[in-house]
Inverse folding.
């Protein structure tokens, strides 16, 4: 377990660079777990690009205070590169908070900064409390007395904001879902505590197969909840919509059209967009983050290939994929290839562009006749269509006719409404801290489930308790009291 | 402080009323008074009826000769202070009014801790043990608990004799009726008794158990009484209220006692104790004498559908359901009528028939606790297999009594509002002999330390179950009689019964509670244990053929290279003992040390993880909150948090964080507010509120 806390420390929004700050006694260790020195090598993610320099020397631990290093951020578990970055090392007490600190600067993209933060959390940092950096800076004598009250107000403000969010979540499914997992854990824990506390009681024999089943049940419920995190992010950062499709389909045109700005270069040269372009817009009052991508195709141009790799990342991160096809851009077989390669669990809207062109009618007929019968979209992919009960794809649009985009907009808004507003089943996780707690609980539970046969009873009970305590943080439950209550309400013990 | 040996029972003269007794004038006068002498100034009035007699001056007064009071008095006297200990009846000192055993889950840990700190319960219980079991011996060391059936009468006699031998400890059979408090400063000055004697001390420990305004209820009958038909204390409770002390009403109960000679044991299941009994006291743990004592069995039976229908048919006659009982009873000892109401689908409930002593045939019938009328209790008893003809010696009953709100106390068990007043035992809302004794020890030590101007003695939640117990009580309060449970401890893996001495004996020695003999024995044991641990971590085992065969034989895998002995011990299939053949250098060690080495090696990883959590926990415990800190001065703190903090008066930020209704955000604000406060009060140095006091 590490003692370090992390957060994105640049304000959200459009800025060129984002800084992820990690502070605390183990900040440098976290740095080493997520940061690699040298240039990012796309093709070969596992090879550390260290040349002749020994990796041990190229470690954050060995950086001096105020020293910067150039390199890239990786997912600490898979070593998969996330983005190029500059890491700045601070040594206590010479830092903002007075503790050991690393600041990782990455390109401004919302996904990159979130993935970098996620990598730090995965590496063992916990996410910072509201106002925690400032608070610790103050407690460590880095800010003067006059600032104390400002700090307190900051914490208060953050708190009331998160209270509002929390209320929102309680109305939604989060508290219900967490409670249902906790209930499973409490039922197991109360049985464990029963055998421990009342070893002579006749019913205190443990039913291990049933306990194992319930541990697995809790584990899978936790995983489902964890995946609900993305939906919660929509509330905070808007819904991420990736525009994908072959070169020249009109993706950049659509982005410009939806945003009302000329942000993305539009030409009739296929492969114009080489890198992803992000844009935060409001669509009928809802926050949407549009991401224009490089066209999907095999190409020899290495820079373009990098762009395509980014496109694939974007697809992974997006909340919704708008897949665009248009006449004369690629063969029907190629279209089928990439459509089928799309993730089955991600909402998808299929649009056919350039309906103003005369070739379109034939092309559309061809799609319907030759492609559609072979395609199978999952329920998860078709969620927008299901919500609105509209006909089967593709949607017909033309970026040259504003009116033709209305249905597409309606689809996007419908998805947002479905996910972004409180509902009974849809679980929404908006807080990084809640997510953090969930991830830790779910990792620990996985560990327990693996080891369950070899764990002595006292260790098993203790480990389950720490899982429950992580979850209880989310809904403010008192684990000890809850378990004791459960023991006495379920079992007739005592003299 | 003058230590008074002779006790006054002569008339002081005067017609002073109660108020003038509690007037601080008296205190200055008492400085002139020698116990046993008349007050010269009052001599002229000696013909009128005296309002009180002077009983003398003590360092500490303890009210109550239960487990709390006895443990407190022993600790006080052992620290060299003078103490007078009051009881309603000295023939029932250290009474076990309910189950005739000491220890059990979590409670056994408490006794081990009391013992490690030099307390009396463990040592004396070992002498009165008539059956011993180590509970959960197969479930991992962190949840093992010793429990012993106790010869009640013998235990009482042992405690009395033990206390009588301690110098400076006076025992007195006398009912305390009043607490004397200096009204303006709210400082304790002494007590007055039923016999109209005033005893003086600046520290008073109330350890009156279940006696305050106590009432026994059996069916339609109820009468004022303490447990076991002892006199109740009917005046003291009222007097405490008159000083502004809040009280709540709790209830508990006990089953019938029967004559073993009338029990058909032939058709019952016998429950023997462990074949090799252990001990509570670390002093006795290597002594074979305790392993060869003859032990007395318990007997096992069950309720049945007949039992249940008798109870059901008579529910309307139960005072629990007729509304006759207002006190709140503990969920963990429901009466038998409670059990059938709450768990109607259970076909039977267990009944243990337990011996209460070597020289008596009276048996305790665990499982039949009841406040039903006599006829119902009798019928119920006779419906149980083996008890068809059982002869009742004492009826079961419920008892209601007054007790403190423990949140009115601080971690030293001193009352927030009345200086010098301490509470210990059941009066603080707990239940159980061991819980009582533990609090007695802590209250006793703190009364003396406060008297001497020394720092308070507080065990935190990572050091001892005692710490968990007291922190829970004073921080969270309790809405039912509080019983210790291992589930309440967050650091159960480090708070084991086997290492209570490692956790606490050094501390007890520094306090002056642990005598040099115990301390040196402890040191010897620890040194040998550490040396062995070090050796085991160093010894290397090579992958020879015989080792390989042995490992496969034990269901594990052969070695690839050489490993340390410690690494092998950690394998689930192996332990310290079975590896002896490959460890020729192994020294001769006691069984206890061998067991401890095994535990510490096997659990090393988990213990380390827990130690990590303890370090995190300690950080917040070390952030002290100044006494009487004004929470109003912190901008941004929520009103609810201010109110809770001001009422509970936490001593550290850690304790504050455990108060219900205080949120993590409140704690963040509090931290900043405290730092601002500290900087204001010492403007020159700007750092930091940490590490002011560490109670490690
Ligand atoms: C009926 C009954 C059932 C119980 N059941 C359980 C159970 O199931 N499980 C469990 O763990 N515990 C049980 N207990 C509780 C356990 O007995 C007590 O918790 C424990 O004995 C309390 O110890 P104590 O030292 O606080 O007080 P006690 O042992 O009650 O001793 C109080 C002492 O104070 C003295 N005293 C009181 N008032 C005065 C006064 N005014 N002046 C002078 N002396 C005074 C009394 O003489 C007595 O010596 C039960 C108790 C009773 C009575
Ligand atoms: N007729 C017609 N032409 C369109 C429409 N939308 C886009 N185009 C044209 O198609 C060409 C390609 O458009 P872009 O928006 O650059 O296409 P893209 O998908 O971003 O292409 P790459 O960036 O190369 O992947 C441009 O010449 C656009 O003007 C449309 O609805 N109708
Ligand atoms: Mg483009």
């Amino acid at each position: 377990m590490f003692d370090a806390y992390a957060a994105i420390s640049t304000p959200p929004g459009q800025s060129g660079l984002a800084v992820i700050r990690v502070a605390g006694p183990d900040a440098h260790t976290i740095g080493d777990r997520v940061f690699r020195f040298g240039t990012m090598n796309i093709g070969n993610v596992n090879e550390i690009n260290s040349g002749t320099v020994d990796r041990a020397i190229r470690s954050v631990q060995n950086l001096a205070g105020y020293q910067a290093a150039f390199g890239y951020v990786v997912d600490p578990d898979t070593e998969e590169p996330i983005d190029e970055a500059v890491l700045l090392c601070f040594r206590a007490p010479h830092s903002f908070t007075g503790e050991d600190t690393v600041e990782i600067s990455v390109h401004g993209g919302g996904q990159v900064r979130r993935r970098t933060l996620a990598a730090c959390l995965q590496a063992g940092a916990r996410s910072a409390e509201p106002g925690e950096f400032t608070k610790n800076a103050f407690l460590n004598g880095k800010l003067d007395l006059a600032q104390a009250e400002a700090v307190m107000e900051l914490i208060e403000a953050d708190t009331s904001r998160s209270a509002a969010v929390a209320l929102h979540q309680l109305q939604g499914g989060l508290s219900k879902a967490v409670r249902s997992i906790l209930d499973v854990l409490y039922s197991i824990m109360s049985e464990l505590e029963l055998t421990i506390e009342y070893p002579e009681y006749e019913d205190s024999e443990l039913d291990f197969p049933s306990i194992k089943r319930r541990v697995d049940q809790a584990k899978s419920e936790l995983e489902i909840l964890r995946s609900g995190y993305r939906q919660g992010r929509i509330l905070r950062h808007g819904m991420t919509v990736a525009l994908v499709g072959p070169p020249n389909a009109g993706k950049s045109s659509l982005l410009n059209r939806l945003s009302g700005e000329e942000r993305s270069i539009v030409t009739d040269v296929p492969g114009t967009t080489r890198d992803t372009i992000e844009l935060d817009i409001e669509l009928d009052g809802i926050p949407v983050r549009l991401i224009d991508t490089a066209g999907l195709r095999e190409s020899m141009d290495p820079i373009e290939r990098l762009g395509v790799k980014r496109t694939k990342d974007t697809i992974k991160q997006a909340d919704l994929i708008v897949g665009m096809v248009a006449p004369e851009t690629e063969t029907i077989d190629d279209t089928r290839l990439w459509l089928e390669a799309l993730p089955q669990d991600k909402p998808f809207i299929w649009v056919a562009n350039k309906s103003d062109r005369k070739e379109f009618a034939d092309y559309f007929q061809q799609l319907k006749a030759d492609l559609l019968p072979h395609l199978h979209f999952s329920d998860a992919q078709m969620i927008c269509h299901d919500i609105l009960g509209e006909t089967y794809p593709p949607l017909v649009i033309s970026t040259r006719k504003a009116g033709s985009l209305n249905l597409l907009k309606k689809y996007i808004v419908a998805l947002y409404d479905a996910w972004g507003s409180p509902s009974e089943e849809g679980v929404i996780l908006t807080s990084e801290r809640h997510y953090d707690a969930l991830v830790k609980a779910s990792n620990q539970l996985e560990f327990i489930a693996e080891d369950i046969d070899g764990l002595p009873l006292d260790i098993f009970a203790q480990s389950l308790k720490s899982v429950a305590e992580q979850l209880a943080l989310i809904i403010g439950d008192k684990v000890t009291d809850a378990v004791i209550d459960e023991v006495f309400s379920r079992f007739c013990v005592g003299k | 402080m003058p230590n008074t040996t002779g006790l006054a029972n002569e008339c002081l003269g005067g017609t002073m009323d109660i108020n003038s007794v509690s007037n601080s004038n008296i205190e200055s006068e008492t400085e002139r008074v020698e116990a046993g002498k008349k007050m010269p100034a009052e001599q002229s009035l000696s013909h009128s009826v005296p309002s009180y007699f002077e009983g003398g001056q003590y360092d500490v007064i303890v009210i109550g000769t239960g487990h709390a009071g006895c443990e407190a008095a022993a600790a006080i006297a052992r620290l060299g202070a003078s103490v007078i200990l009051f009881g309603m009846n000295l023939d029932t000192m250290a009474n076990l009014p309910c189950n005739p055993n000491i220890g059990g889950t979590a409670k056994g840990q408490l006794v081990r801790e009391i013992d490690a700190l030099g307390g009396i319960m463990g040592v004396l219980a070992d002498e009165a043990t008539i059956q011993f079991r180590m509970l959960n011996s197969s479930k991992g060391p962190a949840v093992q608990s010793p429990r012993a059936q106790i010869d009640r009468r013998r235990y009482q006699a042992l405690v009395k004799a033990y206390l009588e031998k301690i110098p400076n400890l006076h025992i007195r059979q006398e009912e305390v009726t009043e607490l004397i408090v200096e009204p303006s400063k709210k400082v304790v000055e002494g007590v007055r008794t039923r016999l109209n004697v005033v005893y003086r001390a600046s520290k008073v420990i109330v350890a009156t158990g279940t006696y305050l305004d106590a009432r026994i209820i059996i069916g339609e009958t109820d009468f004022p009484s303490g447990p076991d038909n002892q006199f109740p204390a009917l005046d003291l409770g009222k007097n405490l209220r008159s000083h502004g002390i809040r009280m709540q009403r709790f209830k508990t109960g006990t089953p019938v006692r029967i004559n073993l000679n009338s029990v058909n044991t032939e058709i019952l299941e016998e429950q023997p104790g462990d074949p090799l009994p252990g001990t509570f006291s670390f002093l006795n743990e290597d002594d074979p004498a305790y392993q060869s004592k003859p032990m007395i069995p318990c007997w096992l039976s069950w309720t049945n559908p007949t039992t249940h229908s008798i109870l059901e048919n008579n529910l309307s006659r139960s005072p629990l359901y007729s509304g006759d009982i207002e006190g709140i009873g503990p969920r963990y000892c429901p009466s038998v009528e409670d059990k059938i109401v709450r768990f109607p689908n259970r076909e039977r409930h267990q009944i243990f028939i337990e011996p209460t002593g070597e020289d008596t045939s009276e048996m305790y019938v665990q499982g039949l606790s009841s406040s039903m009328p006599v006829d119902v209790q009798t019928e119920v008893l006779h419906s149980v297999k083996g008890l068809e003809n059982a002869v009742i010696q004492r009826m079961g009953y419920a008892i209601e009594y007054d007790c403190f709100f423990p949140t009115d106390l601080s971690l030293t068990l001193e009352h927030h509002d009345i200086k010098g007043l301490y509470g210990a035992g059941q009066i603080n809302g707990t239940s159980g002999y061991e819980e009582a004794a533990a609090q007695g020890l802590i209250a006793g030590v703190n009364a003396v330390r406060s008297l001497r101007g020394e720092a308070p003695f507080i065990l935190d939640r990572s050091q001892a179950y005692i710490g968990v117990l007291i922190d829970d009580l004073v921080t969270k309060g309790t809405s039912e009689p509080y019983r210790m449970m291992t589930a309440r401890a967050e650091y159960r893996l480090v708070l084991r019964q086997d290492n209570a001495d490692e956790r606490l004996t050094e501390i007890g020695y520094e306090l002056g509670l642990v005598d040099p003999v115990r301390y040196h024995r402890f040191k010897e044991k620890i040194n040998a244990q550490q040396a062995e641990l070090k050796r085991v971590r160093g010894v290397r085992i090579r992958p020879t053929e015989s080792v390989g065969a042995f490992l496969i034989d034990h269901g594990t895998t052969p070695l690839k290279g050489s490993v340390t002995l410690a690494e092998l011990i950690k394998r689930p299939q192996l332990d310290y003992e079975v590896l002896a053949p490959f460890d020729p250098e192994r020294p001769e060690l006691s069984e206890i040390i061998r067991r401890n080495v095994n535990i510490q090696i096997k659990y090393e990883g988990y213990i380390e993880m827990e130690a990590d959590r303890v370090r995190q926990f300690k950080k917040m415990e070390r952030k002290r909150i100044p006494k009487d800190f004004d929470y109003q001065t912190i901008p941004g703190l929520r009103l609810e948090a201010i109110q809770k903090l001001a009422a509970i008066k936490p001593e550290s930020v850690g304790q504050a964080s455990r108060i219900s209704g205080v949120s993590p955000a409140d704690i963040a604000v509090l931290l900043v507010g405290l730092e601002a406060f500290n900087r204001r009060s010492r403007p020159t140095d700007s750092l930091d509120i940490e590490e002011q006091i560490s109670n490690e």
Notes: Residues 68 and 88 of chain A are 4 Å apart (CA to CA). Chain A touches chain B through 49 residues (CB under 8 Å). Chain A is about 45% helix and 15% strand.
